[in-house]
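Re: that backbone. Tokens:
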């Protein structure tokens, strides 16, 4: 009886640990498939052929609690500022945190994470916080990041001010320096 109980406990722990692990996919050639697999991402994530001229491209499609994609573009010194200006001037951003029933749907609209300034996009087609996009940039790395998240079971992010940093940390992938 004790062995059976122990086996059941071990099984439950293993299942829990496997469920907590996420899958990361990084093949740039599959970028369009990643975007198509995330509900609503195609309304925000750019087509690869509409991007400003870049030096390199990385993609991180992550299946964890929800689904997220992070498209990172690295630019030359000559092209970075004009690309950043073109991208950021073509998109509207939230100006205030979003609340509902005394809970934050989006607690911060702009924050810094590992050297990137990240802004939450304002889009009438998004269903905050279940589905939304963000744009980030790193002047030091000469990079622009297009980020999109979807999880239809998420109804709030948190009431804490630093929750967006923890949210990005747990739901998105970035290159390891």
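Recovered sequence:
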């Amino acid at each position: 009886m004790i062995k059976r109980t122990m086996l059941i406990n071990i099984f439950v722990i293993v299942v829990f640990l496997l469920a907590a692990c996420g899958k990361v996919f990084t093949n740039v050639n599959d970028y369009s498939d990643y975007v198509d697999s995330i509900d609503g991402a195609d309304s925000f994530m750019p087509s690869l052929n509409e991007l400003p001229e870049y030096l390199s491209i990385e993609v991180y499609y992550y299946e964890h609690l929800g689904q997220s994609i992070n498209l990172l573009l690295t630019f030359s010194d000559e092209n970075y500022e004009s690309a950043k200006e073109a991208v950021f001037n073509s998109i509207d951003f939230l100006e205030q945190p979003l609340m509902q029933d005394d809970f934050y749907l989006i607690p911060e609209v702009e924050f810094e994470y590992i050297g990137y300034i990240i802004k939450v996009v304002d889009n009438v087609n998004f269903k905050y916080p279940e589905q939304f996009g963000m744009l980030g940039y790193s002047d030091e790395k000469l990079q622009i990041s297009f980020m999109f998240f979807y999880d239809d079971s998420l109804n709030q992010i948190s009431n804490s001010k630093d929750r967006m940093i923890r949210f990005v940390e747990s739901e998105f992938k970035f290159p390891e320096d």
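The beta strands are 23-25, 56-63, 67-74, 98-100, 103-106, 110-113, 116-120, 131-138, 143-150. The chain is about 25% helix and 30% strand.
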